[in-house]
Specification:
Length: 116
């Protein structure tokens, strides 16, 4: 992994610590980097009604898009899950195919790399 991608994992790991998961839902942190080099981070926001929950990656993409970003260079998610959720990949793919997504464990060690 390149240094800028490692930075994404570090930022996602820090964001995970701020996740709102009062019901014991899966806490995740995410970071995305746009093509201008700006980075956006977010954490899981759970809800009593599961359909209103927001994943960390979707929240990071929304933060970036609402700030004007339209293309991404890379993204990272820190999670206990074994794979990225299909909905999360679909959200990332909306802004471009082939965006690398690094999946790391809570310890910050990148486990897999996939793409949108």
């Amino acid at each position: 992994m390149e240094a800028e991608d490692t930075k994404l994992v570090v930022l996602a790991r820090a964001a995970r610590l701020r996740a709102y998961t009062p019901g014991g839902q899966l806490a995740e942190g995410a970071a995305v980097r746009d093509t201008d080099g700006r980075t956006y981070v977010a954490a899981t926001v759970a809800h009593a009604r599961p359909e209103l929950a927001t994943s960390a990656l979707r929240a990071a993409v929304v933060a970036a898009a609402s700030s004007g970003a339209r293309r991404f260079e890379a993204a990272a998610v820190v999670t206990e899950a074994d794979a990225a959720a299909a909905d999360d990949l679909a959200m990332l793919a909306e802004f471009g195919a082939g965006v690398p997504l690094f999946l790391a464990g809570p310890d910050g060690v990148a486990r897999t790399r996939t793409s949108s």
